[in-house]
Amino acid sequence: MIPNLIVQVWGFDIRLNTASVFDKNQTAMTTDQPSEALPIVHELRNPKGHGFDCMVFDGLYLFVPPPFMLKGETAEKRLQSIQEIELNDDDVIICAYPKCGTHWLWEVVEMLRSGVIEYRKEVKETQEFEIIYKEGTDALPAPRTLNTHLPLRMLPKQVVEKKVKCIKIIRNPKDVCVSFFNQYRDTVAPAGFEGDLEEFTELFLYGKICFGAYSDYLLTWKAELARSPGLPVLEMFYEEMKMDPVKSVKNVARFLGLTSTDQFCEDVAFACSFKKMKQLDKEAKEEYAVAKFWKEGSVGFYRKGEVGDWKNWYTVSESEKFDRIWNDQMKDSGIKFTYA
Ligand code: A3P
Questions:
Q1: How far apart are CA 168 and CA 85, in angstroms?
Q2: How far apart (Å, rounded) are the C-alpha atoms in residues 208 and 61?
Q3: Rounded to whole angstroms, how far apart are CA atoms 307 and 286?
């Protein structure tokens, strides 16, 4: 008989259904949660056993929410609730695949909108749809700077109906992959990743990972936006923001219809520089309930903050292999990335 497999997700015990540990449709259970409230867990592992346990929602691999996020409901119901969120005209939504600079942009937008050079005490995860769902979003005071890694079809229906402002940030895929690898390598088991970068890159490129393949994310957003003409979306590149942060901050201010002075935009860009935000993260941010997310002593979300760090991680042949797969996936996208 196969024994119960107890794993920890973000520090919470999750018991995988014994009968299905070796079958892709296994059900996750915990001792304090009715089994029907927990999602089906899919093991996305390579032959070495390295990979991730994800749930599937609307065709997308997502992280398995720890019980405290579910509040007795199913993960599917919590995720579906996002679509019913009522939005305000002054809501702004930051949309990005993980590791594209979401934390950075969120702080910039919050500071610009507040009109003062003051950091938010909260982390951006306290305003992230797939973490707080409808209930958490409804409880936030206006004006809200919401954020998400989800595709447009999973966001509140009112995003399109009310033409709510969205800001997208994208980044070259090699830096995204290296950044994501470092995040997972520094994350506590089993959400963490035990394999090497080569193995991770394969999972990343072929979408065997939470939030799916980056290429799918980009292509899906492109297709979804084409079906939603008139949606006000500002598209930004991480690399441009790095190259000229003041210009990027001004662009954001203009898009939001703010009358921020040039001096204020410069001050925001400076206050939100990598060095400042890394320091702030240690000193000023209130801890969110993901405290057990990072391994002891890891650098956390503010790792290096550079363009082209991938060159320190990939050999020439690994980089060429990456290009072959990526370029094939993205050949019709029309998106040009900066790699250095
Ligand atoms: P690296 O791992 O390459 O350093 P996200 O916020 O979407 O999770 O993205 C995290 C990435 O953005 C990390 O990349 C992080 O260091 C970088 N980052 C965070 N704040 C930044 C800032 N102020 N300036 C530049 N990069 C920043």
A1: 20
A2: 8
A3: 28
Residues composing the chain: 340
Q: What pLDDT score was predicted for residue 3?
A: 38
Position 24 pLDDT exceeds 80? no
Q: pLDDT grade, residue 35 (50/70/90)?
A: low
CA distance 179 to 301: 9
Question: What are the sequence ranges of the domains in the chain?
Answer: 5-292
CA 246 – CA 269 distance, rounded (Å): 5
Cis peptide before 143 (omega within 30 of 0): yes
Centre of ligand 1 from the C-alpha of residue 281, in Å: 12
* Residue 9 pLDDT greater than 50, yes or no: no
Q: Is the CB of 301 under 6 A from ligand 1?
A: yes
- C-alpha span between 243 and 34 (Å, rounded): 51
The tokens 């996305």 sit on which residue? 44
Fold of 5-292: Rossmann fold (3.40.50)
Rounded to whole angstroms, how far apart are CA atoms 36 and 74? 7
Between the CA of 120 and the centroid of ligand 1 the distance, in Å, is 17
Atom of ligand 1 nearest to the CA of 96: 7
Q: For residue 8, is pLDDT > 70?
A: no
Consecutive H or E run containing 68 = helix 67-70
Q: With cut-offs at 50, 70 and 90, classify the pLDDT of residue 19.
A: very low
CA 69, CA 296: separation in Å to the nearest integer?
23
pTM of the shown model: 0.90
The C-alpha torsion from 224 through 226 and 228 to 231, rounded to 10°, is 100
Six-digit token pair at 67? 């019980």
Query: What is the rounded radius of gyration, in angstroms, for the C-alpha atoms of the chain?
Result: 20
Q: Does the beta carbon of 182 lie inside 6 Å of ligand 1?
A: yes
- DSSP reduced 3-state for 15: strand
Query: How does pLDDT run across 299-332, given as a tens digit for each residue?
Result: 889 999 999 999 999 999 999 999 999 999 999 8
